[in-house]
Design a protein that fits this description.
This protein has 253 residues and is an alpha/beta fold. Helices cover 46% and strands 11% of the residues. The chain has a six-stranded parallel beta sheet with strand order 3-4-5-6-7-8, with helices on one face. Helix 11 links the parallel strand 7 and strand 8.
Length: 253
Amino acid sequence: MKIVAEKERMDAEEIRSLVAKGQVIIPCNKNHKALHPSGVGARLTTKINVNLGVSRDWKDVDMEYEKVRSAVEMGAEAIMDLSSYGDTRSFRRKLTADCPAMIGTVPIYDAVVYYHKPLAQITAEEWLDIVRMHAEDGVDFMTIHCGMNRATAARFKQNKRLMNIVSRGGSIMFAWMEMTGNENPFYEHYDEILDICREYDITMSLGDACRPGCLADATDTAQIEELITLGELTKRAWAKDVQVMIEGPATCP
């Protein structure tokens, strides 16, 4: 908090008060030793986040490391590792070992790569194990798609969209629920995820799985129902001393 206060030219007590109210977050995993903390939220300067990572279409890990270095040199405060191919864990661990910027990930992407098996065969326990693994690796914030549950998915099917689900994580979880008939494990076992976040001091980035991809789909039933759920999940996180930010709102009129 003192480091963030100095960066923002504010009093440390002001920062503490804003964090306590949930209006400012300081993503700071205890295992990210190279981190130079930054605050995100009300009354603070705007932060720059850079998305990168290896994929089937781009497998050059050295180039991704170079992008990270360039981004930090140009002033980026956060790196979002969206890797979805190859040895994702080594790449992630190198980031948290060397990079002073906040590191974020989307565990749902990594699970599909890590387990090397059909989506429907991934168990609820395995989804949670990926979250714990990212926590142990030093990730400061995670996008968790826990707001779209079975009830929201049912509403989504009743109210057809022009552009369907445009969230990658959201489409993966929707497909998994449809294939297995099970509840979203991130929603069903939310308290367990909060315990992991509290243990490592990770910020929850609540993913907007039902965000609209065009004006015609904006503020439809699925989006609003998910937002209400995310509000409830935010309060549950605060009750366990876990910091939260909420994704969105995507395309809006």
